[in-house]
Specification:
The complex is a heterodimer of chains A (about 260) and B (about 325). Chain A has about 260 residues and is an all-alpha fold. Chain A contains 11 helices and no strands. The mean pLDDT of chain A is about 90. The C terminus of chain B is likely disordered. The chains are: A mainly alpha (about 260), B alpha/beta (about 325).
């Protein structure tokens, strides 16, 4: 096999392994389907009435935000999976095989695209059921979907890094929820930034998640895009440019624990 | 060409020296036992030889390829089974082996054939379609060993393959390892179990604190520790000293008393019991129990390292990591 063909084959073998895992771990399946749906229901029916979004129904405001949040967390399977692989000595096995060294990480992150597509479909259907309406053209909606999947893929690399530095799957869980979770809240995902305290507003405006949510919102419900689409692409390049090499570096020096 | 050749391998973690310059030569087709207590540097040596870790100094060739400069070629020629059963719990036994086969680039068909073969020879054929998380510890280790063999590697590394297993599982794994060497595979085995090294290894290197302190066959090492011994328990333990003096004529070295047992290094094994019984009877000292004992690797270990071989696994890893 040529080295390119071998790399592609190795990556697909790992992606297949990662995808097979999902239906076989029902708890994972639950957290990646039921949890975001719960979020939609809670925000729409419990919190939504108290959140003022001038000019929009809250459900139209919320769904793009919650979709971006679920995409950001889509790569979480990768963090858990890598942390488990490390704990169980599988990373040592993979590193002792003549496979392409990039395959484990790219294979896993590619598999995340599969889970993200599923999740995105569920979120859109649930959104439509609770009253969300797309108010843009089909090409814009498609562009928004592509951006959602791009965001998901980029954050898979952040989670890959978390999985490789966390001391256990539980710790990876902890990092995910203490670092990434607040990041999604201090953004335009759930409430208008103007409703936040003055000191928090600049932080929320600079948050990459805000650019991403604004871009998806613009493409789904026609809010002014401003620089959000370019900002999203910029942040995607920056995040992957930082975390892909960091993860690769950690993987090469990985030690079973 | 030797299967493994290491010269002056060094590795430190901060101030802690894991390997202090180790030379190893492993001829093809043998089981080479790397024996040492927790934290001796066994795992570090295996990690370097399997290209998982870069050495600070020294060089090593495995199956003719340099572990630093030709890592990829080394990986094509080795199999590794570690202290952990490194198998994916969410795949079936078959899927695990097939995946490893594909990653060795055997091709889909060959990977499947080989997986079925290995499942059969490791007594896992019936369990092959089940998820590994339903497997027992012994089954996981067997699958782990099978995974290391998927590509028929000429050199196999087994890092404490039986740590934590119960006796029947250990014996089953030993049989599997013995069958491999019959096929000509070179095995480097690390263990902290002396009986395991004694049972499996053609040659044994004893390492302690990152240094090689002895090397040879099991018999050679035992000979270094001395010959046979007579062990006695007396009816009246208080008379050990008197018994030691009486038996001095058949002793090769000074007899010693350890927790109520009198141990007498022997000049000659033949006739020793009869002679000892005669001498003690003549001196009016009653014997409760008497036995001839050959040195074990435990004795070797105790004498070479100055401490008793430790039981229990896993500490080495932690120490090396902490360092």
């Amino acid at each position: 096999m040529s080295s390119v063909a071998a790399t592609v084959s190795d990556t697909l073998v790992i992606a297949k392994r990662s995808i097979l895992r999902i239906p076989r771990q029902p708890d994972l399946l639950v957290s990646f389907t039921v949890q975001p749906v719960m979020f939609v229901l809670l925000f729409v029916y419990v919190l939504g009435g108290a959140i003022v979004t001038p000019g929009f129904d809250y459900v139209d405001f919320l769904i793009p935000g919650i979709i971006v949040q679920s995409m950001v967390f889509g790569g979480f399977v990768t963090a858990l999976g890598l942390a488990e692989d490390l704990k169980k000595g599988l990373i040592d096995r993979f590193r002792s095989l003549p496979m392409a060294s990039s395959a484990l990480l790219t294979g896993r992150t590619l598999a995340d695209i599969g889970t993200n597509v599923t999740q995105l479909a569920i979120m859109i259907v649930v959104g439509l059921i609770v009253g969300f309406n797309f108010s843009t053209s089909v090409p814009e909606i498609l562009a928004g979907i592509v951006i959602c999947l791009l965001i998901g893929y980029v954050f898979s690399w952040v989670f890959a890094f978390i999985g490789l530095v966390a001391s256990s799957p539980e710790a990876a869980n902890g990092y995910g929820f203490t670092i990434i979770f607040p990041l999604t809240f201090v953004s335009s995902a759930f409430v208008p930034i103007a409703s936040m305290p003055g000191w928090l507003q600049p932080i929320a405006r600079a948050n990459p998640i805000t650019f991403m949510v604004d871009a998806v919102r613009a493409l789904f419900i026609g809010t002014p895009a401003g620089n959000s689409i370019w900002g999203t692409l910029f942040w995607c390049v920056v995040i992957i440019g930082v975390f892909a090499p960091l993860s690769a570096w950690r993987y090469r020096r990985a030690v079973t624990r | 060409m030797n299967a493994i050749e290491a010269r002056g391998l060094r590795k430190s973690y901060g101030d802690v020296v894991a390997l202090g310059g180790i030379d190893l030569t492993v001829e093809p087709g043998i089981v080479f036992g790397l024996l040492g207590p927790n934290g001796a540097g066994k795992t570090t040596a295996v990690r370097i030889l399997t290209t998982l870790l870069a050495p600070d100094g020294g060089s090593a060739r495995v199956a003719g390829c340099d572990v630093v400069r030709e890592g990829g070629r080394v990986r094509e020629r080795i199999g590794l089974a570690g202290q952990y059963a490194a198998v994916d719990e969410n795949l079936t036994g078959f899927e695990n082996l097939e995946m490893v086969g594909r990653l060795y680039h055997l091709g889909r068909r060959r990977a499947r054939e080989r997986s079925a073969e290995l499942l059969a020879s490791f007594d896992l054929a019936d369990a092959g379609g089940r998820l590994v998380r339903t497997y027992s510890g012994g089954m996981r280790r067997r699958l782990d060993l099978a995974a290391a063999l998927v590509a028929n590697p000429p050199v196999l590394f087994l890092d404490e393959p039986t740590t934590g297993l119960d006796l029947p599982s250990r014996i089953a794994l030993w049989d599997a390892i013995e069958a491999l060497t019959a096929e000509g595979t070179t095995v480097l085995l690390t263990t902290q179990y002396l009986d395991e090294a004694d049972h499996l290894a053609d040659r044994i290197a004893v390492i302690d604190h990152g240094r090689l302190i002895a090397e040879g066959s099991s018999d050679e090492l035992k000979r270094r520790v001395g010959g046979d011994r007579l062990e006695l328990r007396l009816e009246d333990p208080a008379r050990c000293e008197a018994a030691a003096a009486t038996l001095a004529v058949i002793a090769d070295d000074a007899p010693f008393i350890e927790s109520g047992t009198l141990r007498v290094p022997l000049r000659a094994r033949r006739g020793a019991i009869a002679e000892a019984v005669r001498l003690l009877d003549g001196a009016g000292i009653g014997i409760d129990d008497i036995a001839l004992r050959s040195p074990t690797l435990d004795d070797v270990f105790l004498i070479l390292t100055g401490h008793v071989a430790e039981e229990g696994g896993g500490d080495e890893q932690r120490e090396e990591k902490a360092a």
